[in-house]
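Propose amino acids for all 242 sites.
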């Protein structure tokens, strides 16, 4: 199997994993679907609506690549904005469930349609700014959505489920033999979940592993509020100065 084919399989598997976790969240939250949420504690439907929008933007980028043109620029999202939250919260559960399935299918189809060079060579498109397209797809189709699903569990009194999800996420990157860069991102998310859940020693060990796998996450760790328990104990500073 070529390197590009192997990456395509990894990307496909990770997108499918994240989509399954989104379906599980919608199903498990169904009895509480009318539960009030806000920008500090997102409900299930707005969470999945936000994930879906980000995946749709990535699918649009792939469509642009296939058409031979540059994609539109997408702005940053302020997750603590009441207006942003309200826009997602206005969606119905049925509409969000249907849209997320459609968008996931579109994203998967786009991954299949991409040429090998477009998938792996960042120099082919200036707007990638040196970042390979396969990694960008993983960020929006896997790392971002699983992070928000885990955050839902953390903010809704289910820290054990958040940690279990992120353990499964990391295990999936290993099962698929994903590049260390991706495994490091997954380990970083697990460390954040462990820290918020109160397992600071586990979080410290996992964070050190994440940085070893993907040194780029070091910059995130220095400012991430989820790692405040490690910051307060001095463990974070010890890890970042190694």
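Proposal:
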């Amino acid at each position: 199997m070529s390197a590009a084919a192997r990456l395509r399989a990894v990307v496909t598997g990770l997108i499918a994993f994240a989509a399954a976790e989104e379906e599980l969240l919608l199903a498990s939250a169904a009895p509480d679907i009318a539960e009030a949420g806000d920008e500090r504690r997102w409900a299930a439907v707005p969470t999945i609506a936000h994930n879906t929008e980000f995946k749709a933007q990535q699918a649009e980028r792939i469509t642009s690549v296939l058409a031979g043109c540059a994609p539109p620029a997408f702005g940053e999202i302020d997750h603590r904005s009441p207006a942003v939250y309200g826009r997602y919260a206005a969606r119905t559960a049925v509409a969000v469930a249907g849209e997320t399935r459609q968008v996931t299918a579109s994203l998967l189809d786009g991954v299949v349609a991409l040429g090998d060079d477009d998938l792996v060579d960042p120099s082919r498109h200036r707007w990638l700014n040196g970042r390979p397209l396969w990694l960008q797809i993983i960020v929006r189709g896997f790392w971002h959505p699983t992070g928000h699903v885990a955050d839902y569990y953390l903010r809704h009194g289910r820290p054990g489920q958040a940690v279990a999800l992120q353990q499964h996420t990391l295990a999936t990157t290993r099962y698929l033999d994903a590049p260390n860069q991706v495994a490091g991102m997954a380990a970083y998310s697990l460390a954040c979940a462990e820290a918020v859940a109160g397992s600071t020693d586990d979080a410290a060990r996992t964070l050190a592993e994440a940085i070893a796998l993907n040194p780029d996450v070091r910059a995130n760790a220095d400012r991430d509020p989820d790692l405040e328990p490690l910051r307060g104990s001095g463990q974070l500073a010890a890890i970042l100065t190694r």
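The longest helix spans residues 3-29. The radius of gyration is 18 Å.
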